[in-house]
Amino acid sequence: MKGNVLVVDDDRDSAEVLCDLLISRQNDAVAVDRGDTALQRLDEGDFDVVITDVRMEGMSGIEVCQKVRASHPDVPVMVITGQADVETAVAALRAGAWDFVTKPLNADHVMAAVARAVDHRRTRSEVRRLRQALAATRPIKEIIGDSPSIRAVTELVGRIADGDATVLITGESGTGKELVAQAVHSLGPRKDEPFVAVNCGAVPANLLESELFGHVKGAFTDARRDRPGLFIQAGRGTVFLDEIGEMPLDMQVKLLRVLQQRSLRPVGGDEEMPFYARVVCATNRDLESEVDEGRFRQDLFYRVNVVTIEVPPLRSRGSDILLLAHHFLKRISERTGKAVTSISPDASRKLLDYDWPGNVRELENGIERAVALARMSEIQVDDLPAKIREHHSTRLVIEGDDPSELVTMSEMERRYVRRVLDACGGNKTQAAKVLGIDRRSLYRRLEERSRD
Ligand SMILES: Nc1ncnc2c1ncn2[C@@H]1O[C@H](COP(=O)(O)OP(=O)(O)OP(=O)(O)O)[C@@H](O)[C@H]1O
Ligand SMILES: [Mg+2]
Protein backbone atom coordinates (compact mmCIF):
# COMPACT_ATOMS: atom_id res chain seq x y z
CA MET A 1 0.00 0.00 0.00
CA LYS A 2 1.49 3.31 -0.99
CA GLY A 3 1.60 6.09 1.50
CA ASN A 4 2.66 9.63 2.20
CA VAL A 5 5.68 9.50 4.48
CA LEU A 6 7.32 12.23 6.56
CA VAL A 7 11.00 11.50 7.23
CA VAL A 8 12.65 13.29 10.17
CA ASP A 9 16.45 13.12 10.25
CA ASP A 10 19.10 15.78 10.76
CA ASP A 11 21.56 13.81 8.69
CA ARG A 12 20.65 14.98 5.20
CA ASP A 13 22.36 12.11 3.44
CA SER A 14 20.54 9.33 5.24
CA ALA A 15 17.24 11.25 4.93
CA GLU A 16 17.79 11.43 1.20
CA VAL A 17 18.59 7.73 0.91
CA LEU A 18 15.41 6.83 2.76
CA CYS A 19 13.26 9.21 0.70
CA ASP A 20 14.69 7.86 -2.56
CA LEU A 21 13.92 4.33 -1.42
CA LEU A 22 10.34 5.22 -0.51
CA ILE A 23 9.75 7.10 -3.74
CA SER A 24 11.27 4.27 -5.82
CA ARG A 25 8.55 2.06 -4.34
CA GLN A 26 5.69 4.34 -5.29
CA ASN A 27 5.36 6.27 -2.02
CA ASP A 28 5.41 9.99 -1.52
CA ALA A 29 8.09 11.15 0.87
CA VAL A 30 9.19 14.46 2.35
CA ALA A 31 12.21 14.97 4.58
CA VAL A 32 12.69 17.55 7.32
CA ASP A 33 15.70 17.90 9.59
CA ARG A 34 14.05 18.92 12.89
CA GLY A 35 11.33 17.55 15.17
CA ASP A 36 9.50 20.85 15.51
CA THR A 37 9.44 21.32 11.73
CA ALA A 38 7.99 17.82 11.46
CA LEU A 39 5.13 18.74 13.79
CA GLN A 40 4.39 21.82 11.72
CA ARG A 41 4.35 19.81 8.51
CA LEU A 42 1.98 17.31 10.12
CA ASP A 43 -0.40 20.12 10.93
CA GLU A 44 -0.33 21.26 7.33
CA GLY A 45 -0.30 18.07 5.30
CA ASP A 46 -1.93 14.68 5.34
CA PHE A 47 0.81 12.19 6.19
CA ASP A 48 0.23 8.47 6.75
CA VAL A 49 3.45 7.69 8.60
CA VAL A 50 6.32 9.48 10.30
CA ILE A 51 9.77 7.87 10.28
CA THR A 52 12.15 9.57 12.67
CA ASP A 53 15.76 9.22 13.66
CA VAL A 54 16.42 9.24 17.40
CA ARG A 55 19.42 11.45 18.02
CA MET A 56 18.78 14.83 16.55
CA GLU A 57 19.56 18.44 17.26
CA GLY A 58 16.74 19.95 19.40
CA MET A 59 13.85 17.57 19.79
CA SER A 60 14.79 13.88 20.02
CA GLY A 61 13.00 11.14 18.10
CA ILE A 62 11.43 9.95 21.34
CA GLU A 63 9.90 13.38 21.90
CA VAL A 64 8.69 13.40 18.31
CA CYS A 65 6.83 10.15 19.12
CA GLN A 66 5.17 11.63 22.17
CA LYS A 67 4.18 14.84 20.48
CA VAL A 68 2.81 13.16 17.39
CA ARG A 69 0.89 10.73 19.50
CA ALA A 70 -0.67 13.60 21.43
CA SER A 71 -1.43 15.87 18.50
CA HIS A 72 -2.08 13.36 15.69
CA PRO A 73 -3.02 10.12 17.44
CA ASP A 74 -3.94 8.49 14.13
CA VAL A 75 -0.50 8.86 12.59
CA PRO A 76 1.88 5.99 13.39
CA VAL A 77 5.50 6.88 14.11
CA MET A 78 8.41 4.59 13.25
CA VAL A 79 11.74 5.12 14.93
CA ILE A 80 15.13 4.37 13.38
CA THR A 81 17.46 2.86 15.98
CA GLY A 82 20.92 1.36 15.98
CA GLN A 83 21.05 -2.40 15.60
CA ALA A 84 22.02 -3.22 19.20
CA ASP A 85 20.18 -0.33 20.77
CA VAL A 86 17.42 -2.18 22.58
CA GLU A 87 17.04 0.53 25.20
CA THR A 88 16.16 3.17 22.66
CA ALA A 89 13.74 0.82 20.94
CA VAL A 90 11.94 0.21 24.24
CA ALA A 91 11.90 3.90 25.08
CA ALA A 92 10.43 4.59 21.64
CA LEU A 93 7.67 2.03 22.09
CA ARG A 94 6.94 3.46 25.52
CA ALA A 95 6.66 6.90 24.00
CA GLY A 96 3.99 5.59 21.67
CA ALA A 97 6.03 4.55 18.63
CA TRP A 98 4.19 2.19 16.32
CA ASP A 99 7.29 0.28 15.26
CA PHE A 100 11.05 0.66 14.88
CA VAL A 101 13.52 -0.20 12.16
CA THR A 102 17.18 -0.80 12.71
CA LYS A 103 20.19 0.70 10.99
CA PRO A 104 21.64 -0.13 8.53
CA LEU A 105 18.27 -0.05 6.80
CA ASN A 106 17.18 -3.13 4.95
CA ALA A 107 15.02 -1.97 2.06
CA ASP A 108 12.53 -4.85 2.20
CA HIS A 109 12.11 -4.68 5.96
CA VAL A 110 11.56 -0.95 5.86
CA MET A 111 9.03 -1.21 3.06
CA ALA A 112 7.08 -3.99 4.79
CA ALA A 113 6.96 -1.97 8.01
CA VAL A 114 5.84 1.16 6.16
CA ALA A 115 3.10 -0.79 4.38
CA ARG A 116 1.80 -2.11 7.72
CA ALA A 117 1.83 1.35 9.22
CA VAL A 118 0.01 2.88 6.23
CA ASP A 119 -2.59 0.16 6.45
CA HIS A 120 -3.03 0.78 10.16
CA ARG A 121 -3.39 4.50 9.65
CA ARG A 122 -5.97 4.10 6.86
CA THR A 123 -8.06 1.76 9.00
CA ARG A 124 -8.01 4.17 11.90
CA SER A 125 -8.94 7.07 9.70
CA GLU A 126 -11.78 5.08 8.23
CA VAL A 127 -13.09 4.22 11.68
CA ARG A 128 -12.90 7.86 12.62
CA ARG A 129 -14.69 8.91 9.44
CA LEU A 130 -17.50 6.44 10.08
CA ARG A 131 -17.77 7.59 13.67
CA GLN A 132 -18.05 11.18 12.52
CA ALA A 133 -20.65 10.30 9.92
CA LEU A 134 -22.61 8.63 12.67
CA ALA A 135 -22.24 11.62 14.94
CA ALA A 136 -23.51 13.85 12.15
CA THR A 137 -26.70 11.85 11.83
CA ARG A 138 -27.22 12.19 15.57
CA PRO A 139 -28.36 15.78 15.95
CA ILE A 140 -26.68 17.87 18.60
CA LYS A 141 -28.93 17.74 21.61
CA GLU A 142 -30.73 21.00 21.73
CA ILE A 143 -30.92 23.14 24.84
CA ILE A 144 -34.65 23.72 25.13
CA GLY A 145 -35.86 26.94 26.71
CA ASP A 146 -36.96 30.44 26.00
CA SER A 147 -36.71 32.10 29.41
CA PRO A 148 -34.30 35.01 29.75
CA SER A 149 -32.11 33.02 32.13
CA ILE A 150 -31.62 30.08 29.77
CA ARG A 151 -31.21 32.38 26.78
CA ALA A 152 -28.37 34.06 28.63
CA VAL A 153 -26.76 30.63 28.97
CA THR A 154 -27.08 29.67 25.29
CA GLU A 155 -25.90 33.09 24.22
CA LEU A 156 -22.80 32.79 26.41
CA VAL A 157 -22.11 29.28 25.12
CA GLY A 158 -22.25 30.62 21.57
CA ARG A 159 -19.78 33.35 22.40
CA ILE A 160 -17.16 31.16 24.05
CA ALA A 161 -17.45 27.96 21.97
CA ASP A 162 -14.71 29.07 19.59
CA GLY A 163 -12.08 29.77 22.23
CA ASP A 164 -9.76 27.68 24.37
CA ALA A 165 -10.44 29.15 27.80
CA THR A 166 -11.23 26.74 30.60
CA VAL A 167 -14.93 26.79 31.41
CA LEU A 168 -16.62 26.21 34.74
CA ILE A 169 -20.28 25.24 34.62
CA THR A 170 -22.20 25.57 37.87
CA GLY A 171 -25.75 24.71 38.77
CA GLU A 172 -27.91 22.47 40.91
CA SER A 173 -28.14 18.79 40.16
CA GLY A 174 -30.12 17.98 37.02
CA THR A 175 -30.11 21.50 35.58
CA GLY A 176 -28.37 20.44 32.36
CA LYS A 177 -24.68 21.09 33.09
CA GLU A 178 -23.50 18.18 30.99
CA LEU A 179 -25.75 19.26 28.15
CA VAL A 180 -24.21 22.73 28.30
CA ALA A 181 -20.71 21.20 28.31
CA GLN A 182 -21.61 19.22 25.18
CA ALA A 183 -22.91 22.39 23.57
CA VAL A 184 -19.62 24.19 24.28
CA HIS A 185 -17.89 21.30 22.52
CA SER A 186 -20.20 20.83 19.59
CA LEU A 187 -20.71 24.46 18.67
CA GLY A 188 -16.98 25.08 18.36
CA PRO A 189 -14.15 23.94 16.09
CA ARG A 190 -13.59 20.82 18.22
CA LYS A 191 -16.92 19.28 17.33
CA ASP A 192 -15.48 16.42 15.25
CA GLU A 193 -12.96 15.51 17.93
CA PRO A 194 -13.73 13.40 21.00
CA PHE A 195 -15.77 14.69 23.93
CA VAL A 196 -14.45 12.75 26.90
CA ALA A 197 -16.32 12.98 30.20
CA VAL A 198 -15.13 11.86 33.59
CA ASN A 199 -17.01 12.06 36.84
CA CYS A 200 -14.34 13.03 39.36
CA GLY A 201 -16.53 11.90 42.24
CA ALA A 202 -17.14 8.44 40.82
CA VAL A 203 -13.55 7.38 40.06
CA PRO A 204 -11.74 6.05 43.15
CA ALA A 205 -9.21 8.63 44.35
CA ASN A 206 -6.21 6.39 43.75
CA LEU A 207 -7.16 5.76 40.12
CA LEU A 208 -8.11 9.29 39.16
CA GLU A 209 -4.61 10.44 38.28
CA SER A 210 -3.98 7.53 35.94
CA GLU A 211 -7.47 7.88 34.47
CA LEU A 212 -6.84 11.53 33.63
CA PHE A 213 -3.14 11.52 32.75
CA GLY A 214 -2.47 7.87 31.87
CA HIS A 215 0.30 5.64 33.12
CA VAL A 216 3.34 3.85 31.81
CA LYS A 217 3.79 0.11 31.92
CA GLY A 218 4.87 -1.02 35.36
CA ALA A 219 3.74 2.17 37.11
CA PHE A 220 1.68 -0.03 39.45
CA THR A 221 0.81 -3.70 39.75
CA ASP A 222 -1.97 -3.73 37.20
CA ALA A 223 -0.25 -1.49 34.69
CA ARG A 224 0.71 -4.17 32.22
CA ARG A 225 1.02 -1.71 29.38
CA ASP A 226 1.18 1.99 28.72
CA ARG A 227 -2.17 3.63 28.74
CA PRO A 228 -2.83 7.18 27.63
CA GLY A 229 -5.11 9.13 29.93
CA LEU A 230 -8.30 10.92 29.02
CA PHE A 231 -6.47 14.21 28.47
CA ILE A 232 -4.55 12.55 25.64
CA GLN A 233 -7.45 10.42 24.40
CA ALA A 234 -9.45 13.60 23.92
CA GLY A 235 -6.92 14.72 21.28
CA ARG A 236 -7.94 18.18 20.16
CA GLY A 237 -11.43 17.70 21.54
CA THR A 238 -12.80 18.40 25.01
CA VAL A 239 -12.18 16.88 28.42
CA PHE A 240 -15.23 17.30 30.66
CA LEU A 241 -14.32 17.12 34.35
CA ASP A 242 -17.70 16.58 35.97
CA GLU A 243 -18.16 17.11 39.72
CA ILE A 244 -14.78 18.76 40.00
CA GLY A 245 -15.71 19.79 43.56
CA GLU A 246 -15.32 16.15 44.57
CA MET A 247 -11.70 15.96 43.46
CA PRO A 248 -9.33 15.07 46.32
CA LEU A 249 -6.99 17.89 47.34
CA ASP A 250 -3.78 16.15 46.26
CA MET A 251 -5.25 15.61 42.80
CA GLN A 252 -6.25 19.27 42.69
CA VAL A 253 -2.58 20.20 43.05
CA LYS A 254 -1.64 17.96 40.13
CA LEU A 255 -4.46 19.21 37.96
CA LEU A 256 -3.49 22.82 38.60
CA ARG A 257 0.05 22.12 37.46
CA VAL A 258 -1.16 20.36 34.32
CA LEU A 259 -3.54 23.19 33.42
CA GLN A 260 -0.87 25.82 33.98
CA GLN A 261 1.80 24.08 31.94
CA ARG A 262 -0.55 22.60 29.31
CA SER A 263 1.45 19.41 29.62
CA LEU A 264 1.27 16.31 31.75
CA ARG A 265 3.28 13.38 32.95
CA PRO A 266 1.68 9.93 33.00
CA VAL A 267 1.86 8.07 36.32
CA GLY A 268 5.28 6.40 36.56
CA GLY A 269 6.56 8.28 33.52
CA ASP A 270 9.37 10.78 33.45
CA GLU A 271 8.62 12.60 30.23
CA GLU A 272 6.28 15.56 30.00
CA MET A 273 3.83 15.46 27.14
CA PRO A 274 1.70 18.31 25.86
CA PHE A 275 -2.05 18.00 25.51
CA TYR A 276 -4.34 19.89 23.21
CA ALA A 277 -7.83 19.32 24.57
CA ARG A 278 -10.04 22.04 25.96
CA VAL A 279 -10.98 21.57 29.60
CA VAL A 280 -14.55 22.12 30.73
CA CYS A 281 -15.48 21.55 34.39
CA ALA A 282 -18.78 21.29 36.18
CA THR A 283 -19.90 21.28 39.78
CA ASN A 284 -23.11 21.42 41.75
CA ARG A 285 -21.25 22.62 44.82
CA ASP A 286 -20.67 26.23 45.64
CA LEU A 287 -16.93 26.21 44.94
CA GLU A 288 -16.34 29.54 46.59
CA SER A 289 -17.58 28.28 49.91
CA GLU A 290 -15.66 25.05 49.33
CA VAL A 291 -12.59 27.29 49.01
CA ASP A 292 -13.49 29.10 52.23
CA GLU A 293 -13.81 25.80 54.02
CA GLY A 294 -10.51 24.52 52.71
CA ARG A 295 -11.96 21.74 50.60
CA PHE A 296 -11.10 23.27 47.26
CA ARG A 297 -7.85 24.98 46.39
CA GLN A 298 -8.21 28.66 45.72
CA ASP A 299 -5.50 28.69 43.03
CA LEU A 300 -7.27 25.90 41.13
CA PHE A 301 -10.58 27.70 41.53
CA TYR A 302 -9.14 30.77 39.82
CA ARG A 303 -7.55 28.62 37.13
CA VAL A 304 -10.75 26.80 36.14
CA ASN A 305 -13.03 29.74 36.66
CA VAL A 306 -11.88 31.67 33.58
CA VAL A 307 -15.35 31.56 32.07
CA THR A 308 -18.28 30.64 34.31
CA ILE A 309 -21.63 29.49 33.05
CA GLU A 310 -24.31 29.39 35.71
CA VAL A 311 -27.13 27.09 34.72
CA PRO A 312 -30.27 28.36 36.47
CA PRO A 313 -32.53 26.05 38.49
CA LEU A 314 -35.66 24.95 36.64
CA ARG A 315 -37.99 26.71 39.09
CA SER A 316 -36.66 30.07 37.95
CA ARG A 317 -37.27 29.40 34.25
CA GLY A 318 -41.01 30.09 34.25
CA SER A 319 -42.91 28.51 31.39
CA ASP A 320 -39.79 26.73 30.12
CA ILE A 321 -41.13 24.01 32.39
CA LEU A 322 -43.95 23.42 29.94
CA LEU A 323 -41.72 23.72 26.88
CA LEU A 324 -39.46 21.06 28.34
CA ALA A 325 -42.41 18.92 29.43
CA HIS A 326 -43.74 18.88 25.87
CA HIS A 327 -40.29 18.20 24.49
CA PHE A 328 -39.93 15.15 26.74
CA LEU A 329 -43.52 14.11 26.07
CA LYS A 330 -42.84 14.02 22.35
CA ARG A 331 -39.60 12.12 22.76
CA ILE A 332 -40.98 9.58 25.19
CA SER A 333 -44.15 8.88 23.25
CA GLU A 334 -42.11 8.45 20.07
CA ARG A 335 -39.83 6.04 21.84
CA THR A 336 -42.54 4.04 23.56
CA GLY A 337 -45.07 4.24 20.75
CA LYS A 338 -47.73 5.34 23.22
CA ALA A 339 -49.75 8.21 21.77
CA VAL A 340 -49.82 10.67 24.65
CA THR A 341 -49.70 14.07 23.05
CA SER A 342 -50.81 16.72 25.52
CA ILE A 343 -50.98 17.80 29.14
CA SER A 344 -54.25 18.95 30.72
CA PRO A 345 -54.47 22.56 31.94
CA ASP A 346 -54.70 21.40 35.57
CA ALA A 347 -51.70 19.14 35.22
CA SER A 348 -49.79 21.99 33.53
CA ARG A 349 -50.64 24.23 36.47
CA LYS A 350 -49.22 21.61 38.85
CA LEU A 351 -46.03 21.39 36.82
CA LEU A 352 -45.63 25.17 36.89
CA ASP A 353 -46.26 25.37 40.63
CA TYR A 354 -43.85 22.67 41.67
CA ASP A 355 -40.36 23.75 42.79
CA TRP A 356 -38.32 21.02 41.03
CA PRO A 357 -35.49 20.28 43.47
CA GLY A 358 -34.24 17.67 40.95
CA ASN A 359 -34.60 20.16 38.09
CA VAL A 360 -34.83 19.05 34.45
CA ARG A 361 -33.94 15.45 35.24
CA GLU A 362 -36.84 15.25 37.72
CA LEU A 363 -39.17 16.71 35.10
CA GLU A 364 -38.00 14.19 32.51
CA ASN A 365 -38.61 11.32 34.93
CA GLY A 366 -41.99 12.73 35.93
CA ILE A 367 -43.15 12.93 32.33
CA GLU A 368 -41.87 9.44 31.63
CA ARG A 369 -43.92 8.11 34.51
CA ALA A 370 -46.98 10.13 33.51
CA VAL A 371 -46.85 8.75 29.96
CA ALA A 372 -46.67 5.24 31.36
CA LEU A 373 -49.71 5.85 33.58
CA ALA A 374 -51.80 7.93 31.20
CA ARG A 375 -55.11 6.36 30.21
CA MET A 376 -55.86 9.01 27.65
CA SER A 377 -53.92 10.92 25.08
CA GLU A 378 -53.71 13.74 27.58
CA ILE A 379 -51.75 13.66 30.85
CA GLN A 380 -54.00 14.34 33.86
CA VAL A 381 -53.12 15.52 37.37
CA ASP A 382 -53.59 11.95 38.59
CA ASP A 383 -50.80 10.74 36.32
CA LEU A 384 -48.25 12.97 38.01
CA PRO A 385 -46.04 11.81 40.90
CA ALA A 386 -47.59 12.50 44.34
CA LYS A 387 -44.89 15.00 45.23
CA ILE A 388 -45.87 17.18 42.30
CA ARG A 389 -49.60 16.59 42.65
CA GLU A 390 -49.66 17.51 46.33
CA HIS A 391 -47.21 20.33 46.26
CA HIS A 392 -48.44 23.70 47.41
CA SER A 393 -46.45 26.31 45.67
CA THR A 394 -44.79 28.95 47.77
CA ARG A 395 -43.42 30.90 44.88
CA LEU A 396 -44.06 34.55 45.53
CA VAL A 397 -42.33 35.99 42.53
CA ILE A 398 -43.37 34.83 39.11
CA GLU A 399 -40.95 35.57 36.35
CA GLY A 400 -42.02 35.87 32.77
CA ASP A 401 -45.22 37.28 31.38
CA ASP A 402 -46.98 34.16 30.24
CA PRO A 403 -50.65 34.49 31.36
CA SER A 404 -50.87 30.75 31.98
CA GLU A 405 -48.30 31.21 34.70
CA LEU A 406 -50.00 33.95 36.62
CA VAL A 407 -52.06 33.15 39.71
CA THR A 408 -55.06 34.65 41.50
CA MET A 409 -54.86 37.17 44.34
CA SER A 410 -56.12 34.64 46.84
CA GLU A 411 -53.52 32.10 45.73
CA MET A 412 -50.79 34.69 46.12
CA GLU A 413 -52.13 35.62 49.55
CA ARG A 414 -52.18 31.99 50.57
CA ARG A 415 -48.57 31.55 49.52
CA TYR A 416 -47.53 34.66 51.36
CA VAL A 417 -49.24 33.58 54.58
CA ARG A 418 -47.49 30.26 54.36
CA ARG A 419 -44.14 31.82 53.69
CA VAL A 420 -44.47 34.16 56.68
CA LEU A 421 -45.59 31.35 58.91
CA ASP A 422 -42.58 29.31 57.85
CA ALA A 423 -40.29 32.25 58.45
CA CYS A 424 -41.71 32.60 61.98
CA GLY A 425 -40.99 28.97 62.64
CA GLY A 426 -44.72 28.17 62.83
CA ASN A 427 -45.38 30.72 65.57
CA LYS A 428 -48.86 31.99 64.67
CA THR A 429 -48.88 34.96 66.99
CA GLN A 430 -45.71 36.28 65.52
CA ALA A 431 -46.84 35.51 61.97
CA ALA A 432 -50.11 37.41 62.51
CA LYS A 433 -48.12 40.38 63.71
CA VAL A 434 -45.88 40.37 60.66
CA LEU A 435 -48.92 40.05 58.39
CA GLY A 436 -50.70 42.88 60.17
CA ILE A 437 -53.83 40.83 60.84
CA ASP A 438 -55.24 39.37 64.04
CA ARG A 439 -54.80 35.76 65.02
CA ARG A 440 -58.41 34.89 64.20
CA SER A 441 -58.03 36.09 60.60
CA LEU A 442 -54.85 34.11 60.32
CA TYR A 443 -56.60 30.96 61.51
CA ARG A 444 -59.39 31.56 59.02
CA ARG A 445 -56.95 31.89 56.16
CA LEU A 446 -55.12 28.78 57.20
CA GLU A 447 -58.38 26.84 57.27
CA GLU A 448 -59.25 28.06 53.79
CA ARG A 449 -55.88 26.85 52.69
CA SER A 450 -56.33 23.40 54.14
CA ARG A 451 -59.76 22.95 52.57
CA ASP A 452 -58.32 22.45 49.11
N1 LIG B 1 -32.51 22.79 28.56
C1 LIG B 1 -32.62 21.48 28.31
N2 LIG B 1 -33.21 21.04 27.17
C2 LIG B 1 -33.35 19.72 26.92
N3 LIG B 1 -32.93 18.76 27.75
C3 LIG B 1 -32.35 19.11 28.90
C4 LIG B 1 -32.15 20.49 29.24
N4 LIG B 1 -31.52 20.54 30.42
C5 LIG B 1 -31.35 19.28 30.82
N5 LIG B 1 -31.83 18.41 29.91
C6 LIG B 1 -31.82 16.94 30.04
O1 LIG B 1 -32.00 16.64 31.42
C7 LIG B 1 -31.16 15.59 31.84
C8 LIG B 1 -30.22 16.07 32.92
O2 LIG B 1 -29.27 16.96 32.39
P1 LIG B 1 -27.71 16.86 32.71
O3 LIG B 1 -27.29 15.46 32.90
O4 LIG B 1 -27.00 17.68 31.70
O5 LIG B 1 -27.72 17.60 34.12
P2 LIG B 1 -26.54 17.90 35.14
O6 LIG B 1 -26.66 19.30 35.55
O7 LIG B 1 -25.25 17.44 34.55
O8 LIG B 1 -26.96 16.97 36.37
P3 LIG B 1 -26.04 16.38 37.57
O9 LIG B 1 -25.61 17.55 38.39
O10 LIG B 1 -26.99 15.50 38.29
O11 LIG B 1 -24.91 15.66 36.92
C9 LIG B 1 -30.44 15.11 30.59
O12 LIG B 1 -31.18 14.04 30.04
C10 LIG B 1 -30.48 16.33 29.68
O13 LIG B 1 -30.43 15.95 28.34
MG1 LIG C 1 -23.97 15.88 35.20
How would you portray this structure in words?
- This protein is an alpha/beta fold and 452 residues long.
- It contains 19 helices and 16 strands.
- It has a 5-stranded parallel β-sheet, sandwiched between helices.
- It starts with a strand and ends with a helix.
- Magnesium ion is lined by residues 177-178, 242.
Structural class: alpha/beta
CATH-assigned fold name of the largest domain: Rossmann fold
Q: How are the strands of the biggest sheet laid out side by side? A: 2-1-3-4-5
Largest sheet: 5 strands, parallel
The overall pLDDT average reads 89
Please indicate the percent range of residues in DSSP E strands (runs of 2 or more).
5-15%
CATH homology superfamily name of the largest domain = P-loop containing nucleotide triphosphate hydrolases
- Per CATH, the class of the largest domain reads Alpha Beta
Question: Share of helix among residues?
Answer: 40-55%
The CATH architecture category of the largest domain equals 3-Layer(aba) Sandwich
Rg result: 30 Å
Shape: elongated
Q: List ligands, each type once.
A: adenosine-5'-triphosphate, magnesium ion
What is the total tally of β strands? 16
Q: What are the segments in which pLDDT stays under 50 over at least 5 consecutive residues?
A: none
